[in-house]
């Protein structure tokens, strides 16, 4: 179980969407302190709560990662939420767009994990929770590079879980489906609110779920994948055909 009450939590990408909602959800659960990190601290809402500490952090920047680790050396729970989503096919999108998704969503998150690992090892019991995506399990062609980057992140999350097992550091993946955030504004699907998603994530962390599917859409897609992964691929292909016909 990854307790949040009376613990010190560090959340990246805390300026909007799921990250912003996670700050509030952690506070509501009784977190002792929440480090809210983003590239622009002016865009972080501290909710008028003295337990919130704003930190400037671009996870792609080594100097900023090192400064964040130094400032937040008491972190016990690291939630890696920062990410980007470039629209476009993995086959036809310019390579620099694919590389940008991989740089932030995979390499940046991995770098943040590695930077905070010594801190977490000192502050055990500790936890790492990486916000992956249901796109970790199936590639959505309109977001081909994003999907690939999240698949890579899910894989390294599994590896970290295996490697850190028994060391007092729990490792969780968080795999949302369609969530009502700025990032998903152009996606025409039923969406779960960021607030409900964040509450479900905190509840699942406390329950000790290794892989968290916090919304109805994501759970349904994962259940389909679990029965036969090709069925989920076929479902996405059908959605693509319907969009093209509309």
Structural overview:
With 246 residues, the chain is of the alpha/beta class. It has one domain (8-218): 3-Layer(aba) Sandwich (Rossmann fold). It has helices at 17-28, 62-71, 95-122, 144-164, 194-207, 216-227, 229-245; strands at residues 8-11, 33-38, 52-56, 77-80, 126-131, 169-174, 179-180, 192-193, 211-212. The strands form 2 sheets. A 7-stranded parallel β-sheet has the order 3-2-1-4-5-6-9, sandwiched between helices. α2 (62-71) packs parallel to α3, α3 (95-122) runs parallel beside α4 (144-164) and α6 crosses α7 (229-245). The termini are far apart.
Summary keywords:
seven-stranded parallel β-sheet; 46% helix; Rossmann fold; alpha/beta; 246 residues
Describe the structure concisely.
The protein is of the alpha/beta class.
Helical element count? 7
CATH class: Alpha Beta
Fraction of residues in helices? 40-55%
Mean pLDDT: 94
CATH topology, by name, is Rossmann fold
Give the tally of structural domains: 1
**Cα distance, first to last residue?**
46 Å
Question: Which structural category fits the helices and strands?
Answer: alpha/beta
Can you lay out the helices and strands and say which pair or pack?
Layout: E1 8-11, H1 17-28, E2 33-38, E3 52-56, H2 62-71, E4 77-80, H3 95-122, E5 126-131, H4 144-164, E6 169-174, E7 179-180, E8 192-193, H5 194-207, E9 211-212, H6 216-227, H7 229-245
Parallel strand pairs: 1-2, 1-4, 2-3, 4-5, 5-6, 6-9, 7-8
Helix pairs in contact: 1-5, 2-3, 3-4, 6-7
